[in-house]
Design brief:
The protein contains 2 helices and 13 strands, in the order ββαβββαββββββββ. It is α+β, with helices and mostly antiparallel strands and about 210 residues long. The protein has one domain: Alpha-ketoglutarate-dependent dioxygenase AlkB-like (Jelly Rolls), CATH 2.60.120. The protein binds N-(carboxycarbonyl)-S-(naphthalen-2-ylmethyl)-L-cysteine (MD3) and fe (iii) ion.
Length: about 210
């Protein structure tokens, strides 16, 4: 089923339709996606990046595709090699690429060809503080996110950090396409509640597909 993210909320003039939730779209591929995550992390292990301010991120991350997102004391950026191994990031698995393309098309963005897939791993208690995604070359392309494993409460803010954030549940198999004016809104993830999922145990895995270069 396809529905606007806010179809169940009162219409607000400042919230244009720009984020599309595709509930359960990834369910048929979930096992294949998680196998592909294992193949990627065998080459490029999950790691806790350091923010430019020196904080260790509680989300563990890795990448696949021509470009990968990293953070260190020098800042946030995309690069073509994994700083942990010095090797190129693993190529983007076909099952990733196809799902991202098809989800974007379903949301009205035909021809989406991501060059980066950031893989986030959350344990219970892990959070992602409010931020904008501003390191990609061109904000005209959407971002596609895929949620796997235990559920999360996503925080959907506004164009200013101080804007009040709405809470949106994201479950195993949900895919969201963020484009247009949604692309630069602040967002984050609440600390994950304790839970287990048959396919991931006590973990949540999130894939975000981007055109970074
Ligand atoms: C809205 N990840 O990796 S996915 C991130 O669940 C990130 O791991 C979260 O925020 C996660 O940067 C949220 C949904 C998402 C991703 C990127 C966005 C929503 C977005 C970029 C712009 C607007
Ligand atoms: Fe983000």
């Amino acid at each position: 089923m396809t529905l606007g993210l806010f179809d169940d909320l009162p219409a607000t003039p400042q919230a244009p339709e720009c984020a599309v939730v595709l509930r359960g779209l990834a369910l048929p591929q979930a096992a294949a996606l998680l196998q592909a995550v294992d193949a990627v992390t065998a080459q490029a292990p999950f790691r806790h990046l350091i923010t430019p301010g020196g904080q260790r991120m509680s989300v563990a991350m890795t990448n696949s595709g021509a470009l990968g997102w990293i953070s260190d004391r020098g800042g946030y950026r995309y690069g073509s090699t994994d700083p942990t191994t010095g090797l190129p990031w693993p190529s983007m698995p076909a099952v990733f690429r196809q799902l991202a393309h098809d989800a974007a098309e379903a949301a009205g963005y035909p021809g989406f060809a991501p060059d980066a897939c950031l893989i986030n791993r959350y344990e219970c208690g892990t959070r992602l503080s409010l931020h904008q995604d501003r390191d990609e070359g061109n904000y005209d392309h959407p971002i596609v996110s895929v949620s796997l494993g235990i559920p999360a409460i996503f925080l959907w803010g506004g164009s200013e950090r101080a804007d009040k954030a709405r809470r949106v549940g994201l479950w195993h198999g949900d895919v969201v396409v963020w484009g247009g004016p949604a692309r630069l809104r602040f967002h984050g993830v609440r600390p994950l509640a304790e839970a287990t999922h048959a396919m991931t145990g006590a973990l949540r895995i999130n894939l975000t597909f981007r055109k970074a270069g």
